[in-house]
């Protein structure tokens, strides 16, 4: 196992991962986030260098959980090697698009007496910056999210409602790009964030404002910023989430082959 920190090595790894798109999307996004300031305090590990066959990104072991993170990581390559670098005593969230990784995680977790929740998403990728749906409504304005908006985000997130999720969301808002539509009183109506894997996430529109093109404006604004930084524009959507899929299609996102897995493990 080798930890990469040299900018030249990270750039070489990034170039190699781009040649393996779309299967490498989560790993590429994480490596790029590390190489561009590492706001999420992640490490990049490979099995060997420069001829590597496995890549893993994970939260730095010295960073305590609860300080705006959830042990999020991703990996590509031999699943069992990836899992050997995971600290199973800490809560973690793993994402990836590699076949077999969720079966390997479940098998290792069962042997340790742990339970893992598996979520299967459809990966969506925009080859170009998303197309805005048109001009916004009068009185509304685009802005980044602020820490004062975190209670609303935490209350509306399907995995939210806890102190850990609140701290995780606040860490994203403080460290990574985001965009939202604010009403005349400064209240968020629609928003999206970027997670440590460079993935568009936590997209939400207040129910009373749905169907009015606000999510498209948010995606276009955040997508332009990410595209300017060289990031791939991608996200994962539950196959049953028809409204989000329609909004992404309208913005120029295309479905990708394979399954985008998210696995959650919480120790007893």
Automatic annotation (TrEMBL):
Residues 179-259 form the Glycine N-acyltransferase C-terminal domain. InterPro entries: Acyl_CoA_acyltransferase, Glycine_N-acyltransferase, Glycine_N-acyltransferase_C, Glycine_N-acyltransferase_N. Residues 1-62, 84-177 form the Glycine N-acyltransferase N-terminal domain. It holds the Pfam family Gly_acyl_tr_N. The keyword Transferase applies. Its EC number is 2.3.1.-. Transmembrane segments: none annotated. Keywords: Acyltransferase, Transferase. Belongs to the glycine N-acyltransferase family. PANTHER family: GLYCINE N-ACYLTRANSFERASE-LIKE PROTEIN, L-COA N-ACYLTRANSFERASE-RELATED. This is Glycine N-acyltransferase-like protein.
